[in-house]
Amino acid sequence: MAAADSSLSDNPRTFSRRPSAQASRQAKATKRKHQASSEAPPAKRRNETSCLPAKKTSVKETQRTFKGNTQKTFSPKKHSVSPSDRNQEERPCIKTSSLFKNNPDIPELHRPVVKQVQEKVFTSAAFHELGLHPHLISTINTVLKMSSMTSVQKQSIPVLLEGRDALVRSQTGSGKTLAYCIPVVQSLQAMKSKIQRSDGPYALVLVPTRELALQSFDTVQKLLKPFTWIVPGVLMGGEKRKSEKARLRKGINILISTPGRLVDHIKSTKNIHFSRLRWLVFDEADRILDLGFERDITVILNAVNAECQKRQNVLLSATLTEGVTRLADISLHDPVSISVLDKSHDQLNPKDKAVREVCPPRTGDELDNFAIPESLEQHVTVVPSKLRLVCLAAFILQKCKFEKDQKMVVFFSSCELVEFHYSLFLQTLLSSSGAPASGQLPSASTRLKFLRLHGNMEQEERTAVFQEFSHSRRGVLLCTDVAARGLDLPQVTWIVQYNAPSSPAEYIHRIGRTARIGCHGSSLLILAPSEAEYVNSLASHKINVSEMKMEDILCVLARDDCFKGKRWGAQKSHAVGPQEIRERATVLQTVFEDYVHSSERRVSWAKKALQSFIQAYTTYPRELKHIFHVRSLHLGHVAKSFGLRDAPRNLSALTRKKRKAHLKRSRLWKSAGFAAGAQP
Ligand SMILES: Nc1ncnc2c1ncn2[C@@H]1O[C@H](COP(=O)(O)OP(=O)(O)OP(=O)(O)O)[C@@H](O)[C@H]1O
């Protein structure tokens, strides 16, 4: 198999730097010399593009960039290849440039250690203390198998049963769904005139994504087991409108919906009436009331207000901010603000040890500091762009191939990025894991399982993937922020953020897919050296991350003989040192590059993914632009993390053309807390 010639990926062109004419001439001369002395054919064209107007690069820097190109040739251990890969195998070996040279220095992380805000998850109070209908209590105990309440449930349920509006904030995975579902079911089953199916909605629950709609529907359905006359129903995009219309016509009493789909029906279906509505619930309220859904929410509130004036309104989220509470003023009447912040951990009120049942609304500063589950270990690693792909792959292998029962969610910033990495990993990591190497547990090779979830998938597939990953004991789910909110995926052990989120709130929701309801979990945020300051930004919101060294992640390659360098091939077991780990990392990168470069179609697919990455990068909000700015990206290095041997030539033109339209769209999404391309 040919090793990849990646010499041009060390191309000094970045978004911010363009070599002077002299530097450029010297670079060309250096390169010609390098190519002449090489036995390898010049496999690639020169990269002459820069996405954005660039600054100058010093001669020294340019020379330094080209110096690292004469490297050893490696040949990855045979891995299964598709027919189109076979041509590649017959090509003569070409030289592989170093992944480890010409990288920017990894800065020391001077992270301020902050004391995180914490909450107590469980209480000793039992559900039967609430005076609920005995059948509801027995359903909670026997069907849901729960006996004691969580803190948020203990505080919210009595307030909601009193008939008050409420703003509920508690950490991810603390049981907010039941905190509103139990009072809704209790109050509806107790209504004097028994509810008829044809009455239509008595409760409307709005959630931001289809998967969350399904999940909440499932919970409501379970609680309604003894109360068969109350009919729950779900409306969500992607389902057949006609069958939804038919269900609406028959009657749905507890309606769970995404905003967009409900607006669809309000506009086109005559069968939806809100005259009997008693409850309006906004789950993930900060997301729902944000700009992305503004128009839909206005339509819904107008429709609801036109028919019903007196109802209870509930807003819930792990990240209710002041902005949301202000918006909430429009829809809430004299609300109670519920927060389960553990005052014994609250630095702002160190003397106030008493956990108040219902806290008064908090100040802006307090609202910006989100509680994080105590059992969640957060890590960050700083990785040069060239090594990002290899590092992510190594981390996945370490956890999901060599350790048992690991379930991982990896977040990307766009649908295209999810698709790209999903296909790439399926075709490379999975096939290279096919043959168990010596010393490797036989079952390890079968442990890797990849799934993907994003807003551009057909609904049927989305639902199937969500169900499969939910019920699976292991696997890697690659996804956009469509999976960041509210999803209760059992036993997720690791959250990886390959692209940094656009706000601390989104960071909280992403990592909140693990360590739920008191379980243990871990997270890893992968940053480029130029993004290291993001750690301080997190610290300013009382988010504490500890550093994991890139070298420690790559170390797993010592255990994976699939990526053994050629020169070590004949040797039996031997201690694998740092040099060999670097070589194995290069072999792994070569596997990716070979796959991407095995056909024109794949090259253009990788370019599109790269372009999508850059477009998403331009949409970070203003307050993060000094950390995430396209000008600080080294295009050649970033290209390598897409298995491309150079930076694509026509990227700038394409980027400029699409940028305007994309910016408009993604600003809307971003402001609504979603990553670019992630659509609910
Ligand atoms: N009283 C309880 N006892 C045991 N488990 C519970 C209890 N209440 C809820 N759970 C479980 O805890 C998990 C998390 O609950 P839920 O999804 O409602 O959390 P959440 O606070 O809404 O999280 P997020 O903020 O991420 O949406 C679920 O699996 C749920 O079944």
TrEMBL record:
Keyword Plastid: no
Segments forming domain DEAD-box RNA helicase Q: 125-154
Function: May have DNA helicase activity and RNA helicase activity. Probably have ssDNA and RNA dependent ATPase activity. Plays a role in ribosome biogenesis and TP53/p53 regulation through its interaction with NPM1.
Family: Belongs to the DEAD box helicase family. DDX31/DBP7 subfamily.
The record's note on its domains: The Q motif is unique to and characteristic of the DEAD box family of RNA helicases and controls ATP binding and hydrolysis.
Keyword Nucleus tagged: yes
Alphabetized UniProt keyword annotations: ATP-binding, Helicase, Hydrolase, Isomerase, Nucleotide-binding, Nucleus, RNA-binding
Protein name: ATP-dependent RNA helicase
Helicase ATP-binding domain segment(s): 157-338
Record motif Q motif, residues: 125-154
CC annotations in GO: nucleolus
The gene coding this protein: DDX31
SMART domains linked to this entry: DEXDc, DUF4217, HELICc
Biased amino acid composition, Polar residues: 1-27, 65-74
Pfam families (alphabetical): CTE_SPB4, DEAD, Helicase_C
